[in-house]
Design brief:
single chain; 472 residues; mainly alpha; 20 helices; 85% helix
Length: 472
């Protein structure tokens, strides 16, 4: 519980800092800037698969480790990330030619600095996670968020344009690298003799393969849309995706970090793992479902109020993608549990399913429907299908049944659906002057309806979440 509070609480605080800067910067930059940045991100995510986080995670999953293993992993991280940085500098012109945007070359070469910070983040993070000591990591992450936010604000106000989006992550990552190394006291002498790393290679190799397949799943939309759409349209789509995935990409991953360490500690007690997984699913859906469906119901006044009228074209995209996010929230809970139980092959199979389902969905969407709407529509049917495939693969390993999972997600999801319908009905009946007041009304109605429903029909789930929060 302490680990959850530090990891998720710090993530929330850091995100508040980052979002305050992000939403301010969005109002200053243009959609085309975000389109160009998305093109470079697809390359960074691909090469980041080789950064070695999977090898560092092997230190968490292993029952026992020694100084030799730590030094070997550190040496491996240095070799991998130095090579990746050099490769990105050399191959940047090819990526620019693919996207037909020359500026991508210069952006990618500067962004190569991020890889050089990775060894000083991945190793300390793994050592702290193994001890479930997320307090120090939380403090460093918050400092990194402040550094990134200040850099973004400074560059945006100075008129740096798309370079704002390049500079901010570099400041964030290097602040984390310095802070994590100090916090974990992990500045060890690297070893470049990799004999005796059989278990680490096997675990890390499986993680790299699954991450590569995950890359295909998550970056196929930008790879396809980057050639089919103008930077303006791609920027609208990626910004809509960012808003829709706030819960699934910002808040659930920190919980998974803690869950992975916790499941690894109790991996010999499968009943405890199954019990913990069901509880996690209930509580996550209690929070994620109302946020995602509420976002879909209030997309228009929210975007016009927070981002401004120039982002109005993103409204229908947010509505579509947000409806698929409860399924994604459930889907990404499964893999950490299966992997911590010593079954990384499950994550590989899950990622393989995603690498087939989502690219196929994006291809159908872009060619059958067209534009950003086509890409957004792919999430609406591709994500639920991927979630069902993941559940079928992972549930036998974790020890949960389909009936148990339906009981776990029903309270939060059912109340969220009724809440969203009530918000849409009120929005159609009441006509208020100004989108700001309209947004306030809809949030108030949605919050009141959802709280009333869960207290009336899912009080046990609410009390369970409160007991967990109060450590009772």
């Amino acid at each position: 519980m302490t680990a959850v509070l530090w990891r998720s609480g710090s993530q929330f605080a850091a995100q508040m800092v980052m979002w305050s800067a992000t939403f301010f910067v969005i109002r200053l930059l243009q959609p085309a800037d975000y389109g160009l940045f998305a093109m470079t991100q697809s390359i960074l995510v691909l090469l980041n698969l080789l950064c070695g986080y999977g090898f560092a995670s092997a230190l968490i999953q292993a029952k026992e480790i020694d100084d030799r293993q730590v030094r070997q992993v550190f040496g491996l991280l240095i070799v991998l990330n130095g090579s990746i940085a050099l490769a990105q500098v050399l191959l940047a012109p090819l990526a620019a030619a693919y996207f037909r945007q020359p500026i991508v070359t210069h952006m990618l070469r500067v962004q190569a600095l991020i890889y050089l910070s990775t060894p000083f983040i991945a190793l300390p993070s793994a050592l702290l996670a193994r001890r479930m000591d997320f307090r120090r990591e939380a403090q460093v992450n918050f400092a990194g968020a402040i550094a990134g936010a200040l850099t973004a604000l400074t560059c945006a106000l100075a008129g740096a344009g798309v370079w704002t989006l390049v500079a901010a992550p570099i400041a964030l990552f290097w602040t984390r690298a310095i802070g994590m190394t100090i916090a974990a006291r992990a500045l060890v002498r690297p070893s470049f003799r990799f004999a005796g790393m059989g278990g680490t290679w096997a675990f890390g190799g499986a993680m790299i393969l699954s991450q590569f397949l995950w890359f295909v799943q998550t970056q196929a939309d930008v790879a396809i849309g980057g050639r089919a759409l103008a930077p303006h349209d791609l920027g609208l789509y990626t910004t809509a995706l960012f808003l829709s995935q706030i819960v699934t990409s910002k808040f659930i991953p920190p919980l998974n970090d803690v869950a992975f360490s916790a499941y690894a500690r109790i991996q010999n007690d499968r009943a405890a793992v199954a019990y913990g997984f069901e509880k996690a699913a209930r509580i996550v859906m209690l929070i994620a479902a109302p946020f995602c469906l509420g976002l879909a119901a209030t997309a228009e006044p929210l975007i016009l109020t927070v981002l401004g009228a120039k982002w109005a074209e993103a409204v229908p995209l947010v509505r579509i993608v947000a409806l698929a996010m409860p399924a994604l929230a459930m889907q990404i809970l499964f893999s950490p549990a299966a992997t911590a139980l010593g079954q990384p092959g499950i994550q590989v199979k899950v990622s393989a399913c995603g690498a087939v389902i989502m690219p196929a969905a994006f291809l159908v969407g872009i060619f059958a429907i067209g534009g950003g709407i086509g890409l957004a529509s792919a999430w609406a049917w591709g994500t639920p299908l991927l979630m069902l495939a993941t559940a079928r693969l992972a549930m036998p390993v974790i020890g949960v049944t389909a009936r148990a999972m339906l009981r776990a997600v029903a309270p939060g999801l059912g109340a969220a659906i009724m809440m969203a319908l009530a918000v849409v009905a009120v929005d159609r009946m009441v006509d208020l002057p100004g989108v700001g007041w309209r947004l306030v009304l809809l949030i108030a109605v949605g919050g009141a309806v959802y709280v009333g429903l869960v207290l009336a029909f899912a009080r046990a789930t609410v009390m369970e979440a409160l007991r967990l929060l109060l450590r009772r």
